[in-house]
Structures are given as C-alpha cells and as structure tokens.
Amino acid sequence: xxxxxxxxxxxxxxxxxxxxxxxxxxxxxxxxxxxxxxxxxxxxxxxxxxxxxxxxxxxxxxxxxxxxxxxxxxxxxxxxxxxxxxxxxxxxxxxxxxxxxxxxxxxxxxxxxxxxxxxxxxxxxxxxxxxxxxxxxxxxxxxxxxxxxxxxxxxxxxxxxxxxxxxxxxxxxxxxxxxxxxxxxxxxxxxxxxxxxxxxxxxxxxxxxxxxxxxxxxxxxxxxxxxxxxxxxxxxxxxxxxxxxxxxxxxxxxxxxxxxxxxxxxxxxxxxxxxxxxxxxxxxxxxxxxxxxxxxxxxxxxxxxxxxxxxxxxxxxxxxxxxxxxxxxxx
Length: 331
Hints:
This protein has a single domain (21-329), classed as Beta Barrel (Lipocalin). The chain is built from 2 helices and 17 strands. The chain has helices at residues 35-45, 163-167; strands at 68-83, 90-110, 113-132, 135-144, 147-156, 173-183, 202-213, 216-227, 230-233, 236-240, 243-255, 258-269, 272-274, 277-278, 283-296, 299-310, 314-329. A 12-stranded antiparallel beta barrel has the order 1-2-3-5-6-7-8-11-12-15-16-17. Strands 9-10-13-14 form a 4-stranded antiparallel beta sheet, with no helix packed on it. The chain is globular, with a radius of gyration of 21 Å. It starts with 34 loop residues before the first helix and ends with a strand.
C-alpha cells in the first residue's frame, strides 16, 4: 500500500516511459517547463519507490484464537531523500508521503489449522521535490490506493483453538504460509507518469517461521513479489521482474498483547522492462526499525518507526506509523 512511482530506468529512449518532447503536455497546470527540464524531472520522478517489500510487520505468523474479528486504522508518515545514480543531473531530491488505511481481519479454522483472512484499502497523499539542472521542481498526488488482501494458514505448531483453549496454549514453534494479493483498483491516470494506483496485480507468496522462548520470540519471513504487466503506462507496456524479500523480528513480550520488537529486512530485484528495453538498475535495499504494541482491553495501539539502513536506488525514508485496532468475538 504505497504511492506508485516507477522504478529507476535507463534514460536511453525508449525507456520505462517515452520521455520525448511530448512529455510536457502530461504535466499538470503550473508545472510547464522547458522540454529538457521536463524530461529530467520525469526521469527523477521515476526513481522513487515505496514497494511492498519495504513493509516491516512483526507478529504476522504468531497464532491467535479463531473466531476473532479485528478492524484496524493506520496512519503512516514517510519523509526522506531520493537515491539515484551519481551521473544523474538531479540532486537535493526528497519526498513526503502520507498513508491512511482501514483494514479488516478475521481468524479462522481451516482444516483444523489456525488461519486468518484480511482485506485493506489505503488512501495516499504524496509530495515530491527536486533540483533539475538548478531548477526546483515538484509534484503532488492524492487518491485511493490499490486494494490489498491476505490469507495465511499455520502449517506446523498451533492448531485452530477457541479462546478457552488458546488461554492455556504454550507452543514454541510455528511455521506458516500466506498469500498477499493487490488488486488494481486505485486511482490511475494512463497519461501520467506518477499515480497512486499501479494498474497491475501483485501476488506475494510468503513463508514465515516463529520460535518462542519464554518472553522472547524470533520471527523470520521470506517472500517473493510477482507483478502482472501494466499494459497502459503512458502508451507503453511496463513489466517488472520479481522482488525477493526477507525480514526478521525479535520480539519481547512484557505481558499478553504488550510487546516491543526490533525489525529489519532486505529486498532485491524488481528490474523494469518497457517495450522490451531493460532498465540498468534494480533495487537492493534494506530497512530497520522498532515497533511497540500496547493493549487497552479489546483494543491495541501500535507505534512503529523505521529508516533506510541501505538504499541503492529509491527512497531513503524515515517512517512513523500509528495504528489502532479493535477486536471482538464472532457470534
């Protein structure tokens, strides 16, 4: 759930977008500029990515009782610099991106195993600025993002348990799998290089492992994101290679639902091909952060902070997020 801004590309035409003299007519009112400046501005704007691979989500494979509904609202603020090739004439680039989302999740019993099913919809507002050959340029986008769904099931460890059974559960090891699907329902304008929606499907299978010892829990996740083609990207077809991502979390539990986690991840891939022309660069980035969860009866508040530990191409963002969850038992 992030502002869709294409990945870094080779500037040799034709590239991820046909950045020719006609490019200036796609700029919004108030952003008309000389053709070469418009070309460089749009090239810079294609270097920012807030990919799903950046997500740091501790506790995704820790079991819970079945028959529980949870609704969550989240607000995340992202701000930072843009990393691009040193040969680029663009410098002093940065972005501010705000995300608000609402999600619903339900815990299930699937063939005697603990499982969960969730759906979420974000709204995004992003503002990007940068100096192009000494000229300060900027662009803003707002709108509904793509719809996200997730289904997960525990394969080893905790079975499906009612609340009474779960209260006495003392398992130590769990292994689960999940599938995230992103549907292209977000705001998308085919003649714009920057959009809130991505105009393509995303499928991300993942395997997750948790190991608990007294108050400590280690969680590790391995995922690969697959993308369908965007067949209407400013008159071209845009293909993106898969992204492989790994993340780890070390969680300390003070008492049930009150915990703190250290988070980290790394992802690689996502090279872009447009009309048969491959980009020169791919993502090789990582993030680190911390998450605190505080329970309030049937409610929970989470506060998360993360930063770019390593950024080769894309956004080197500081991110601060706050979420509020309310849970109730299904009848």
